From TrEMBL:
<dbReference type="InterPro" id="IPR028082">
    <property type="entry name" value="Peripla_BP_I"/>
</dbReference>
<dbReference type="InterPro" id="IPR028081">
    <property type="entry name" value="Leu-bd"/>
</dbReference>
<dbReference type="InterPro" id="IPR051010">
    <property type="entry name" value="BCAA_transport"/>
</dbReference>
<dbReference type="InterPro" id="IPR006311">
    <property type="entry name" value="TAT_signal"/>
</dbReference>
<dbReference type="Pfam" id="PF13458">
    <property type="entry name" value="Peripla_BP_6"/>
</dbReference>
<protein>
    <submittedName>
        <fullName>Amino acid/amide ABC transporter substrate-binding protein, HAAT family</fullName>
    </submittedName>
</protein>
<keyword id="KW-0732">Signal</keyword>
<feature type="domain" description="Leucine-binding protein">
    <location>
        <begin position="40"/>
        <end position="387"/>
    </location>
</feature>
<comment type="similarity">
    <text>Belongs to the leucine-binding protein family.</text>
</comment>
<feature type="signal peptide">
    <location>
        <begin position="1"/>
        <end position="23"/>
    </location>
</feature>
Length: 401
């Protein structure tokens, strides 16, 4: 089936309404979710509710809640109360959110957008012995953990996935200018790119120029990146590689085009996820190619159910942030069911290692030994789909994890 036909099929599914949605979610004939059999449980959800990462936080909340909506507001046969705490934008505000949720006796934690927050709360989560299923931030340095699992990715993987593709596309003698905010996530992404760009690794002359580090603010102004972009363009590159998300991505794309760049832009898919494409023009984004572990037009049963339900509920296509949070709920559903009628955090954590393969909207995946997904990565290109700009699936890149 062509990509256009796939997207049309998803749009038609979204238009079926409540009857079609209920049928898609029934587990056996006309049966919906089974009645709860266990005692109520409480899940703590950590997500930014203010600041530049709020849009990503909203997606994480939406994805988790969608799974609950489709499954009778229960996990593993237990009625669920979700308590949300504001992650903010710093390790300090993230720590306060975790402390608040632990005091309320949550069975498990989920969410977390910012890599600095994930690193900052590591020891608290491990000491509390309460499982955290992270649905976004996953720095490479987060290793040797027992109670922290992630349904997203490790942050060097977007660069590792797209590196070989770029190496094939860019001829010998070409140059890539790398521009990114000076933070932990960007360093992981770029390290992954350098390691997998070619067999020569970071010594490959095409990516040998020093990285141009920008300010790491999540809410930049209309000229925040102008000087850095001019530095990049002065190198006369054949391509740009960058790593931005949310409002920072919008400003970088606009300012890059305003400075005269019309060549190829390669990036992790965060550059064009969420509301970013709603805020840029086609002429500004038409040469952007990204790597990500999810595309809303993937043609599998789990994604047809998820994407159509998400569009019906929120009037927009789902993102990797929403998908990973949806999967975090699915993972907890399986683990809590295995843990039995009166689960403890420690029993749930033990059960997480036994759940096996996940039938996900991204395609089937499973946890590896470091408690991160072994999963496929996809190549996407920004193209017009009807009246809107979309991240259109081109092909598979690699299986990583």
């Amino acid at each position: 089936m062509s990509q256009m036909n796939r997207r049309r099929a998803l749009q038609l599914l979204a238009a079926l309404g409540t009857t079609g949605l209920t049928a898609a979610c029934a587990t056996d004939g006309d049966e919906g979710p089974a009645a709860p059999t266990g005692k109520p449980v409480k899940i703590g959800l950590i997500a930014p509710q203010t600041g530049g990462f709020k849009a990503i936080g909203d997606e994480i909340v939406n994805g988790f809640q969608l799974y609950l909506t489709l499954n009778g507001q229960q996990l593993g046969g237990h009625p669920v109360t979700v308590v949300t705490a504001d992650e903010g934008e710093t390790a300090k505000t993230g720590q306060a959110a975790v402390d608040s949720l632990l005091k309320q006796g949550v069975l498990a934690l989920t969410g977390v957008v910012n890599s600095a927050v994930m690193v900052g709360i590591r020891d608290t989560v491990e000491k509390a012995r309460v499982p955290l299923i992270g649905s976004n931030a996953s720095p490479k340095s987060l290793q040797s953990v027992v109670y922290i699992w992630r349904t997203s990715y490790v942050l060097d993987e977007p660069g590792r996935a797209i590196g070989p593709y770029m190496a094939q596309r860019l001829p010998a003698g070409s140059r890539v200018a790398i521009v990114a905010p000076d933070n932990l996530g960007s360093r992981d992404v770029i390290q992954g790119l350098q390691a997998q760009f070619s067999t020569a690794g970071s010594s490959d002359p095409r990516i040998a120029d020093p990285v141009i580090w920008t300010d790491a603010t999540s809410t930049p102004g209309g000229t925040a990146y102008t000087a850095d972009i001019r530095t990049a363009l002065a190198r006369q590159p054949d391509a740009i590689f960058c790593h931005f998300a949310g409002p920072a991505a919008v400003q970088f794309i606009k300012q890059l085009y305003r400075e005269g760049w019309t060549g190829p832009v390669y990036a992790p898919g965060f550059l064009t996820e969420g509301t970013v494409l709603d805020e840029v023009q086609e002429v500004e984004a038409r040469n952007i190619v990204t790597s990500l572990n999810y595309s809303a037009d993937l043609n599998n049963t789990a994604n047809r159910t998820f994407a159509s339900a998400y569009r019906k509920t929120h009037g927009a296509s789902p993102t990797t942030y929403a998908m990973a949070s949806y999967d975090a709920a699915q993972v907890l559903d399986k683990a809590i069911r295995l843990a039995g009628g009166d689960p403890t955090p420690q029993q749930v954590n033990l059960a997480l290692g036994k759940i096996g393969q996940i039938d996900s909207p991204r395609g089937a995946w499973q946890f590896n030994q470091p408690r991160t997904p072994q999963q496929k990565w996809y190549l996407r290109k920004v193209q017009r789909d009807g009246q809107v700009l979309s991240n259109v699936l081109i092909n598979e890149l690699a299986t990583l994890g």
